[in-house]
C-alpha cells in the first residue's frame, strides 16, 4: 500500500495524458515575442505579460524576455504588469505565418496593485482584488536586496519577526506575534506550491535548512494569515512560496560570481531555452559556494551547493506538464549565543572575545572521539556543520478539460539525510572560583586548569565554560501530492482539491560537553583535583554523552479543501474557503537513562561517570490522530483601479510539534492542537508615485506549546494562550530618481491562561506578560537613488524594539538598529554590485539571557547577536 500511495501522483498524470485529445498536439506557427523594458531601458525580469483575448499569460525570464506561440492570426491586446510599474497595454496585429517581435515599455510606479499572484488563492488574481495580506518580490528585487540567506530576505516582510543571526540556515520566524521554540512553526515554506518539507519545525531541521536562494528563483510570494490554512498544513501564520524560473524559445543564460571580505567564493549559473521550439522547454541552474563565515571559526564555515531544474512540455490552451528536480549538498556553520557584558545598559564584548566576529565554534575542537557505553567509539566532525543532502523529484500537470473545468495535479518526493553538528553553550561563563564551588563542589585552590594542546596553565583570571558539541543525525523523507479541479462558473470560481502527504523523520542525538576558555577561537581545557588526583576532563571533554536520544516521528495527511471566489459586482468580491484535515501521527521514543551509566574505563576521571544511554532500553510507541476543520471568509471591495479594502475572518490550527510528541509519548492526553483565530482588515492604494498596503489584525491562539530544550536536556513542555493585536504597513514611493520602501509592524502579543507549577515545585503566573522574543515595534526603511541611468545606490535601515528572552519578562533584550548599504552599476549585459550589511557593527541581540550573571563580581551573560559588518562584491552577466 505504501508504494501505491507514493506513486499516486504519477498514476494520475499518466491517466490524464492517456486521455488527451488527439488534437492536443496541433499547433499554429504564429509567434509573438519580445522583451519588457523599464523607462531607463533596462530589461524587467519577472513581469507578467498576457494576451487579453486569449487568456494566455507568461512571466518574463531573467533577461526580460517573453514569448507566445501557436497564436491564431488576428488583433490582440497585449498587457504587461510588474511590481513598481504602471500597467502597459497595446493593440497588436499578427498575420498568418508571422513571427512578431514586440518590445514593451513599463513606466515606473510605486507598486502596481494589478500584479497577479498565485499563492494562497484558488486562481491567479491581482493584488487589488485579493483579500489577503501579501508581499511579493521578483528576481531583480531579490538581487537588489542582496540577502545573505533565505531568512535575511524574509526580514523585509512586515508581520514576520525573523532572526537571521544563526548564519545561512537554522534561523527562526515568528508570524504575527506567535511565540514558539523557533524554526518555522506556524508558516510553511514552499517551492513552486509544495512544501520543502511537510513540517518546517522539526528539531534542528528548520525549513530554511532545506532551501537556498539562487539564480533559479523567479519570484517570492509571502501570504500572512488569511487563506494560508486552506492551502497549506500547519500554517495559520502564512505561506512563503518561492517560484522557479521556466524555459522559453530563446536560449538565455545568467552567470554570477560573488566574493566577500570573509573569504567567499561563489558561482551561480542559470540556463534556459527550448529543446523543441514552442513545445519543450528547460531551465537548469544552481550554485557552488565556499566561505569562512562572518564569525571566525578557523575553518571553512560554509561549503557546498545545489543544482535544480525543470522541463516543461506545453500543450495548447496553456496546458502543460512540468517535471522538476533538486539536489542540495551543503555544509553550514550554525552560530549560537556568545558571552557578552552590560556596561550601564550598553551591550559590549568581553576582553578577548569579539562580539561581532567571535564564536565558541572553533577549529581547536572540531573533531570529537569519545568512548561509548557498551563499547565502541562515537565520532563527530564539527566542520561538517549542518549538512543536509537532499534529493527531490516531482511533476506538475495542468489540463483544461472543458471551457469551464481545469484539472491540476502536483507531486514531489523528497529524501533528506541531515548530519547536524554545532556548538551550544551550556552553563557559565564561570569564574574559576564559581566553577569549583558550584560545579565540582570543592574549593578553587584544589583545581588546576591547563590547555589540552600544550599543557600550559590557564590564567587564573580567565573565564571558563562548557561548549557542547550537539550531534543530531536525521533521516527524513516526504511524499506529497496535491490535485484539484477548478470550475469557472461565472461569476463564481470554485476550486476543490485533495491533498495527501506522508513523511517520516528518524533521529539520533549524541551530545558531549567540552570545557573551554572564554575567548575567540577557544581552546580545550583539562581540570585536575590536586588533593584527590582525580581528573574532571578527558582530553577536554568534561561530560561524555551526557544526552542520547533515539526517536521517530511519522505523519500521514489526508485532507480535502474547497475555495470559492464570488464576483458579486464589478467592485465587490467574496471569498470563502474550507479545509478538513484527517491526519495521523505516530512514532516511538527511547527510554533513556539520564546521567546513570558509568563507562568505568577512565581511571580517576569523572568525565565518564554520568553517561546517558538508550542501549538495551525498551521504546515507547505512540499514536496521535487529528481531525480538524479550517475555514475562512472574506470580502474585498474595489473603489476604483487604484484603491480597495477587505475584511477577513479565518480559523486554522497547528498540530503538536515533534518535541511535544517526544516529551508526552507516555501520555498524549495533555496534547491539543493549537487553535488560531484571526480577524483582518486591509486597505490598498496605489498611484503613479505612492503605494500603501495596510493590515490591521487580531490573533487569538489557544494552547501554544513551548518546547525549548533546556541545558539539562529536558524540555520546557509548557502550554499557554496568546492574544495579539497589530498593524502591518508596507509602503512604496517613487519620485523621479528616488525610490523609497518603508515597512513597519506594531503589535501587542500577550500571554493568557499561563499559570502553573515548575519542575522544582515553585509556581508561576505569566498572564498579561509580553510574548517572548517578539518586539512590539519593528520597521525597515530603504531609500534608493538612481545616481545615473546605470548607477544606483541604496541604504537599508532596520529597527527592532526591545523584547524579552523568557516568559517572566525579567530578561530584556535591548532595542537595536542595523544599517546596510550598497551600489550597483549596469553596463550593457553586465551588473556590478557591492553590498554591505551591519555597517556600524551594531550588537543587536536576537535571543539570550542578558540578566544572567556568573558571580556577584561578574556581569557576563550569554546572548546571540546579529552578524558583524560584512561586504560582498558581485558581477553578473546575461547572455
Automatic annotation (TrEMBL):
<keyword id="KW-1134">Transmembrane beta strand</keyword>
<dbReference type="InterPro" id="IPR037066">
    <property type="entry name" value="Plug_dom_sf"/>
</dbReference>
<keyword id="KW-0798">TonB box</keyword>
<feature type="domain" description="TonB-dependent receptor-like beta-barrel">
    <location>
        <begin position="373"/>
        <end position="839"/>
    </location>
</feature>
<dbReference type="Pfam" id="PF13715">
    <property type="entry name" value="CarbopepD_reg_2"/>
</dbReference>
<dbReference type="InterPro" id="IPR039426">
    <property type="entry name" value="TonB-dep_rcpt-like"/>
</dbReference>
<dbReference type="InterPro" id="IPR036942">
    <property type="entry name" value="Beta-barrel_TonB_sf"/>
</dbReference>
<dbReference type="InterPro" id="IPR000531">
    <property type="entry name" value="Beta-barrel_TonB"/>
</dbReference>
<keyword id="KW-0472">Membrane</keyword>
<keyword id="KW-0408">Iron</keyword>
<comment type="similarity">
    <text>Belongs to the TonB-dependent receptor family.</text>
</comment>
<dbReference type="GO" id="GO:0015344">
    <property type="term" value="F:siderophore uptake transmembrane transporter activity"/>
</dbReference>
<keyword id="KW-0813">Transport</keyword>
<keyword id="KW-0998">Cell outer membrane</keyword>
<dbReference type="InterPro" id="IPR008969">
    <property type="entry name" value="CarboxyPept-like_regulatory"/>
</dbReference>
<keyword id="KW-0732">Signal</keyword>
<keyword id="KW-0406">Ion transport</keyword>
<feature type="domain" description="TonB-dependent receptor plug">
    <location>
        <begin position="127"/>
        <end position="239"/>
    </location>
</feature>
<keyword id="KW-0812">Transmembrane</keyword>
<keyword id="KW-0410">Iron transport</keyword>
<feature type="signal peptide">
    <location>
        <begin position="1"/>
        <end position="26"/>
    </location>
</feature>
<dbReference type="InterPro" id="IPR012910">
    <property type="entry name" value="Plug_dom"/>
</dbReference>
<dbReference type="Pfam" id="PF07715">
    <property type="entry name" value="Plug"/>
</dbReference>
<keyword id="KW-0675">Receptor</keyword>
<dbReference type="Pfam" id="PF00593">
    <property type="entry name" value="TonB_dep_Rec_b-barrel"/>
</dbReference>
<protein>
    <submittedName>
        <fullName>TonB-dependent receptor</fullName>
    </submittedName>
</protein>
<dbReference type="GO" id="GO:0009279">
    <property type="term" value="C:cell outer membrane"/>
</dbReference>
Amino acid at each position: 500500500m505504501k508504494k501505491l500511495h507514493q506513486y499516486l501522483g504519477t498514476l494520475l498524470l499518466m491517466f490524464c495524458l492517456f486521455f488527451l485529445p488527439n488534437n492536443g498536439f496541433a499547433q499554429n506557427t504564429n509567434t509573438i515575442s519580445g522583451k519588457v523594458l523599464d523607462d531607463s531601458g533596462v530589461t524587467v525580469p519577472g513581469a507578467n505579460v498576457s494576451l487579453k483575448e486569449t487568456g494566455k499569460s507568461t512571466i518574463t525570464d531573467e533577461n526580460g524576455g517573453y514569448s507566445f506561440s501557436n497564436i491564431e492570426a488576428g488583433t490582440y491586446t497585449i498587457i504587461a504588469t510588474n511590481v513598481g510599474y504602471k500597467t502597459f497595454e497595446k493593440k497588436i496585429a499578427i498575420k498568418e505565418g508571422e513571427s512578431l517581435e514586440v518590445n514593451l515599455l513599463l513606466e515606473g510606479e510605486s507598486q502596481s496593485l494589478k500584479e497577479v499572484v498565485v499563492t494562497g488563492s484558488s486562481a491567479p488574481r491581482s493584488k487589488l482584488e485579493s483579500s489577503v495580506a501579501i508581499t511579493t518580490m521578483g528576481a531583480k528585487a531579490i538581487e537588489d536586496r542582496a540577502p545573505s540567506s533565505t531568512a535575511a530576505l524574509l526580514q523585509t516582510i512586515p508581520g514576520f519577526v525573523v532572526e537571521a543571526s544563526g548564519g545561512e540556515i537554522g534561523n527562526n520566524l515568528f508570524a504575527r506575534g506567535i511565540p514558539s521554540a523557533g524554526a518555522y512553526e506556524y508558516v510553511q515554506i514552499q517551492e513552486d506550491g509544495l512544501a520543502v518539507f511537510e513540517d518546517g519545525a522539526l528539531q534542528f531541521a528548520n525549513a530554511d535548512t532545506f532551501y537556498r536562494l539562487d539564480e533559479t528563483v523567479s519570484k517570492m510570494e509571502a501570504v500572512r494569515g488569511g487563506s494560508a490554512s486552506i492551502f497549506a498544513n500547519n500554517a495559520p501564520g502564512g505561506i512563503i512560496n518561492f517560484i522557479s524560473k521556466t524555459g522559453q524559445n530563446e536560449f538565455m543564460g545568467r552567470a554570477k560570481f560573488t566574493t566577500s571580505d570573509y573569504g567567499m567564493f561563489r558561482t551561480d549559473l542559470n540556463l534556459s531555452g527550448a529543446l523543441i521550439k514552442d513545445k519543450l522547454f528547460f531551465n537548469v541552474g544552481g550554485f557552488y559556494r565556499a566561505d569562512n563565515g562572518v564569525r571566525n571559526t578557523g575553518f571553512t564555515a560554509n561549503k557546498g551547493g545545489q543544482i535544480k531544474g525543470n522541463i516543461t512540455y506545453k500543450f495548447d490552451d496553456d496546458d502543460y506538464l512540468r517535471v522538476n528536480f533538486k539536489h542540495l549538498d551543503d555544509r553550514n556553520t550554525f552560530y549560537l549565543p556568545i558571552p557578552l557584558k552590560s556596561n550601564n545598559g550598553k551591550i559590549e564584548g568581553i576582553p578577548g572575545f569579539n562580539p561581532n566576529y567571535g564564536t565558541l565554534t572553533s577549529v581547536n575542537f572540531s573533531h570529537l572521539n569519545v568512548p561509548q557505553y557498551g563499547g565502541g567509539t562515537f565520532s563527530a566532525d564539527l566542520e561538517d556543520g549542518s549538512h543536509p543532502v537532499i534529493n527531490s523529484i516531482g511533476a506538475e500537470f495542468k489540463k483544461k478539460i472543458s471551457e469551464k473545468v481545469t484539472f491540476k495535479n502536483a507531486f514531489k518526493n523528497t529524501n533528506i539525510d541531515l548530519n547536524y553538528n554545532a556548538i551550544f553553550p551550556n552553563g557559565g561563563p564561570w569564574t574559576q572560583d564559581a566553577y569549583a564551588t558550584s560545579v565540582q563542589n570543592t574549593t578553587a585552590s584544589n583545581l588546576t586548569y591547563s590547555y589540552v594542546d600544550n599543557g600550559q596553565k590557564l590564567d587564573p583570571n580567565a573565564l571558563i565554560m562548557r561548549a557542547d558539541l550537539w550531534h543530531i543525525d536525521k533521516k527524513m523523507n516526504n511524499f506529497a501530492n496535491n490535485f484539484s479541479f477548478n470550475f469557472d462558473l461565472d461569476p463564481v470560481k470554485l476550486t476543490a482539491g485533495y491533498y495527501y502527504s506522508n513523511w517520516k523523520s528518524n533521529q539520533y542525538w549524541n551530545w558531549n560537553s567540552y570545557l573551554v576558555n572564554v575567548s575567540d577561537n577557544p581552546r580545550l581545557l583539562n581540570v585536575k583535583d590536586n588533593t584527590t588526583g582525580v581528573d574532571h576532563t578527558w582530553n577536554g571533554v568534561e561530560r561524555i554523552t551526557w544526552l542520547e536520544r533515539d526517536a521517530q516521528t511519522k505523519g500521514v495527511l489526508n485532507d480535502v479543501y474547497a475555495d470559492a471566489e464570488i464576483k458579486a459586482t464589478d467592485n465587490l468580491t467574496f471569498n470563502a474557503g474550507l479545509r478538513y484535515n484527517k491526519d495521523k501521527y505516530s512514532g516511538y521514543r527511547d527510554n533513556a537513562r539520564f546521567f546513570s551509566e558509568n563507562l568505568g574505563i577512565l581511571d580517576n576521571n569523572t568525565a565518564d561517570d554520568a553517561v546517558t544511554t538508550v542501549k538495551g532500553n525498551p521504546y515507547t510507541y505512540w499514536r496521535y490522530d487529528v481531525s480538524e476543520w479550517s475555514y475562512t471568509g472574506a470580502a474585498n471591495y474595489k473603489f476604483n483601479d487604484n484603491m480597495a479594502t477587505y475584511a477577513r475572518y479565518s480559523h486554522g490550527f497547528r498540530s503538536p510539534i515533534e518535541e511535544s510528541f517526544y516529551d508526552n509519548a507516555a501520555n498524549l492526553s495533555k496534547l491539543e492542537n493549537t487553535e488560531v483565530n484571526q480577524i483582518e482588515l486591509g486597505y490598498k492604494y496605489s498611484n503613479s508615485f505612492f503605494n500603501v498596503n495596510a493590515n490591521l489584525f487580531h490573533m487569538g491562539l489557544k494552547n501554544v506549546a513551548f518546547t525549548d530544550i533546556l541545558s539539562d536536556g529536558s524540555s520546557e513542555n509548557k502550554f499557554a494562550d496568546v492574544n495579539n493585536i497589530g498593524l502591518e504597513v508596507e509602503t512604496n514611493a517613487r519620485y523621479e530618481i528616488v525610490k523609497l520602501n518603508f515597512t513597519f509592524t506594531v503589535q501587542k502579543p500577550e500571554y493568557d491562561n499561563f499559570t502553573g507549577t515548575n519542575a522544582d515545585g515553585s509556581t508561576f503566573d505569566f498572564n498579561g506578560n509580553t510574548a517572548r522574543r517578539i518586539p512590539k515595534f519593528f520597521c525597515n526603511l530603504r531609500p534608493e537613488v538612481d545616481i545615473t541611468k546605470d548607477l544606483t545606490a541604496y541604504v537599508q535601515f532596520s529597527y527592532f524594539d526591545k523584547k524579552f528572552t523568557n516568559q517572566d519578562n525579567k530578561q530584556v533584550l535591548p532595542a537595536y538598529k542595523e544599517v546596510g548599504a550598497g551600489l550597483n552599476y549596469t553596463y550593457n549585459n553586465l551588473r556590478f554590485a557591492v553590498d554591505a550589511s551591519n555597517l556600524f557593527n551594531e550588537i543587536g541581540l536576537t535571543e539570550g539571557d542578558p540578566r544572567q550573571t556568573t558571580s556577584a563580581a561578574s556581569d557576563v551573560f550569554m546572548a546571540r547577536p546579529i552578524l558583524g559588518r560584512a561586504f560582498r562584491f558581485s558581477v553578473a552577466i546575461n547572455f
